[in-house]
Amino acid sequence: MLKILAFFVFLLVAHGCRHKGNVYSNGETWDENNAFRMRCDIDSNGGWKTAVVGCLVNGNLVKVGEKKTIGDIVHHCDRQSNGQISIRHTKSATAACVDADGKRHSVGDKWVQRTHFEMLCEPEGNTKFVGCVAEGQHLGPNSSRTIHGVQHHCDSKVDGTFRYYTGPKQ
């Protein structure tokens, strides 16, 4: 009887989670495809199961059901209704904006881009066109003003494009 018990203990110890030719013991973790952290566990009926415990972002662990901000990006490690684990990335509310010259601006900052375009940094790194600048004066979107005898125009279109020009209305 003792020999039979020893044999079953040997079987329990000798086995574990098998994954891609490797055997992992209870509680042991490993990284899969540089994307997920896996763990081997003994389930309630004495069998072995492999579980995803988190997502990997540049070597940083984001546990399933949690999120972690790294730089300007929020990384979410989600469990879907079908049990599948996925990682998604969103910009943080405080993400900086980057102008056409590569300069970073904080949320709430305004700057003039390409000599005439006034921009505003909004949450999540979104850059908003707020008007034009002509000879140091602000022109709102879709407005015109005569400055020193020259007609200045600031146009903003529904497709998100904008332009500044001088002379007669085009």
TrEMBL record:
The keyword Signal applies. Residues 16-84, 96-161 form the Abnormal cell migration protein 18-like fibronectin type I domain. The keyword Nucleotidyltransferase does not apply. Residues 1-16 form the signal peptide. Keywords: Signal. This is Abnormal cell migration protein 18-like fibronectin type I domain-containing protein. The lineage of its organism: Eukaryota, Metazoa, Ecdysozoa, Nematoda, Chromadorea.
